[in-house]
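Below sits our specimen:

——
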Amino acid sequence: MAVNAAIVGPGNIGTDLMYKILGRSNSIDLQRMIGIFPVDESEGLQAAVDEGIDVGTDGIDSVREHADEFDIVFEATSATVHEQQAPVYEELGLFAIDLTPAAVGPYTVPAVNMDDVTNSGNNINMVTCGGQATIPLVHAVNRVADVEYAEMISTISSESAGPGTRQNIDEFTQTTAAGLEEVGGADEGKAIIILNPAEPPILMRNTVYTKVPDTTDVDDVRDSVAEIESEIQSYVPGYEVTLEPSVKDQDDVGFDLGDSVVITTMLEVEGEGQYLPPYAGNLDIMTSAALGAAERIAEHSAEARTVGGDADD
């Protein structure tokens, strides 16, 4: 049985998410796309109409009016807007999947902690595009070696950085760094984002540095990273580790590391191209992760109904 959902925010992310739900999900039934502009002024709302999806144009008032139609709300607006609207979703009994860096609910990365946060409340945060890409790698290293420090550098095409991304740069660095610690397991985290104006546009590329004890077995790290790469590819097909974990000691880096070494891993994300161009992997990984989270919620809901005896015979 499918779980009903609405998307709030018909911009690039919201529209790409719509096409992902319609094209590949059997457990999420999209009921409505909600924005704040008339349909003829919103490409995303017009796309929803073209796909036969009902729309709302009054923002949070449309959510209130149609709240009985859905169980899950995908928030694809901005951090500021979600902070304002999260209490309304809670009041209405809606489960919010937040694609902004607002961090109202717990940081959520499907390949790492989805099962842990599913029953933790009715609002989960998908961290950031860079967080979805790099937190799993920090987690993969940390589960075989204590990560004392983690740093990620995320480079995305400036063509794929819309107004929302540019307005949320501060939130991106703060939220991603916190996610490296709280979900990835690093003792200390740092995040950097670079908007690259190159033509043709580049794919999303990420570099992850983890400082670990010099006794760490790099083969164990590589096995752990390969395992989590496969898990992520189950919901983000364009995710690829491009540089296997490699070790550098203090002679390589040029400064004192004490009893530690630095492990470097690189990855890139290519989008599926349903709505956004393939180079917009930074947006694709967010929508793919949000859909993956929603499908896990639907699975938990189905399991609960079965345990409760309400499932169809």
